[in-house]
Amino acid sequence: MKITGARVIVCCPGRNFVTLKLETDQGLTGLGDASLNGRELAVASYLNDHVVPLLVGRDATRIEDTWQYLYRGAYWRRGPVTMSAIAAVDTALWDLKAKAAGMPLYQLLGGASRERVLVYAHANGRDIAETVDEVQRQAALGYRAIRAQSGVPGLNKVYGVATDGKHYEPATRGLPREEDWDTPRYLRHVPQLFDAVRSAIGWEHELLHDVHHRLTPIEAARLGKDLEPYRLFWMEDATPAENPEAFRLVRRHTTTPLAVGEIFNTVWDCKALIEEQLIDFIRTTVVHAGGLTHLRRIADLAALYQVRTGSHGATDLSPVCMGAALHFDLWVPNFGIQEHMPHNEATDAVFPHAYRFDAGFMHPGEAPGHGVEIDEALAAKYPYQRAYLPVNRLQRDGTLWDW
Ligand code: GCO
Ligand code: MG
User: Fold this and answer.
1) Beta carbon of 170 within 6 Å of any ligand 1 atom
2) If you measure from the C-alpha of residue 168 to the centroid of ligand 2, how many angstroms do you get, rounded to a whole number?
3) 398 lies in a domain?
4) Which residue out of 122, 212, 288, 370 is catalytically annotated?
5) What separation in Å is there between the alpha carbon of 252 and the centre of ligand 1?
6) Nearest CA owner, ligand 1 atom 10
7) Tell me, what's the pLDDT at 165?
8) How many structural domains comprise the chain?
9) Based on CB atoms within 10 Å of each CB, which residue in 1, 249, 311, 403 is the most buried?
10) Residues contacting 323, CB < 8 A, separation 6+
11) Catalytic annotation on 122?
């Protein structure tokens, strides 16, 4: 099976997505997600200008060789742009191979290790009362695991809270929005939030929280300790992870499980955190960590150290990524949980898919390949719109802070 064509499709059905479509001499097509929030066109250019010319004429069945060719062959290794581009090619090739075999992708990976994939929902509110209501609403929808975020008194806009009462979507049109931050206010507030949530919902549901890289290691250690009574499933991105040693300090002080990795691109970003057992869940996902070929390598390393997967699944990852991730989740032996933020209706219409939600779990479906397609005519009606993620400044003096 030879690759005869490769096209990059950029569309914005509410938010920007970059999709790679491969065509073959057997008439089969394969899709890969290459979306990188706020830097989408850099990946589109990387693919169009530098990768597509390498693909036409290649044997589509040689997934591993193509991965190595694009990674080692580029000389310049790693980084989000490169690894998202490689991921798109890799995902499209797995899609093609599974379609050629007439199998759902999870069968090619080794078959299902479980019947269904546990997912967690998002519950956001401007204050604790609103978040508690939202947790209860998500529980009523059937979710068994729920991430709770709330506005912090005295702060205008914080991560994870929708300003218009709709689903949270951090990227905004135009130039980056500025948010403000104050660590002491936040540290006082979050234990109160989880106290209220547990009082309202009891102990049957798993609860999660995303710190979004804002604390220093000692502050993260303090928050982990303060949250211990509420038995979180995980505390996510407690401190920036460029320096994995930072997690030694957090780990020493708290038994709250730790999750990291949505901005990681390769196994090299995860290696020390996993080998030293400094984390409990690794959050790398298909699109930003080099595709299924590389994500499998990360998961296998993690399995040696009892670290489980918890793939990023925000709405800025397209349904193509979600479909591929669910096949991975159904197979991966050391699965933990999968994030699930439902896409808007326009996105679901542009990307028809076989995956489904049922009572707190998802399943990738039995369609050959990863089960996600693109309606190109519809996608063309939603051209790219410039959008950025927010930036964050300390409320006290305007210092730029981690968002
Ligand atoms: C999450 C993430 C997202 C990211 C977003 C950035 O846990 O889902 O932290 O909310 O901020 O994906 O593009
Ligand atoms: Mg996160």
Assistant:
1) yes
2) 12
3) no
4) 212
5) 27
6) 314
7) 61
8) 2
9) 311
10) 353, 354, 355, 364, 370, 371, 372
11) no
